[in-house]
Design brief:
rod-shaped; CCD34 protein; single chain; CCDC34; mainly alpha; 1 helix; CCDC34/181
């Protein structure tokens, strides 16, 4: 009877140890799962932060590019306006020069016209010979 009691006690002790081991194993598994879940959550959070940071950097870069483009466009338009202004000024200068030249030409023409009225008329056939032939003695030199 003692042996049987001893055996029953051993069985009960064995069952108790088994149950404790199973409970500890369950706790360990639960703890492990919780740890893994927290780790996944942490990784996801970290990835989301990194993604948000990348998006923010991308937006900032895009804004900088847009600002630079606007500045470049403004500068280009200012250069074009300056170029057109200079071309207009050159055109005005050319017009002024042409006008001045016309006025000078007209003045010179009027002076010439005035002077030409006062000049004596040249001989019709030139060289002082009437009808283009010599009158009088003709000597040939040899």
């Amino acid at each position: 009877m003692n042996k049987q009691l001893e055996k029953v006690k051993q069985n009960q002790e064995s069952e108790r140890r088994k149950r404790i081991a199973e409970e500890k194993h369950k706790e360990w598994v639960e703890k492990k799962r919780e740890e893994e879940r927290r780790e996944r959550k942490r990784k996801m959070s970290k990835e989301m932060v990194e993604k948000a940071t990348r998006e923010l950097e991308k937006m900032q870069l895009q804004e900088k590019a847009e600002i630079k483009y606007k500045e470049w466009l403004k500068k280009k338009r200012a250069e074009e306006a300056e170029k057109k202004k200079k071309e207009k000024e050159k055109e005005k200068e050319r017009e002024a020069e042409l006008q001045e030249k016309r006025i000078r030409s007209e003045k010179i023409f009027k002076e010439w016209l005035q002077n030409s009225r006062n000049k004596p008329q040249p001989a019709l056939n030139g060289y002082g010979f009437p009808h283009g032939t010599s009158t009088g003695l003709y000597i040939e030199y040899t």
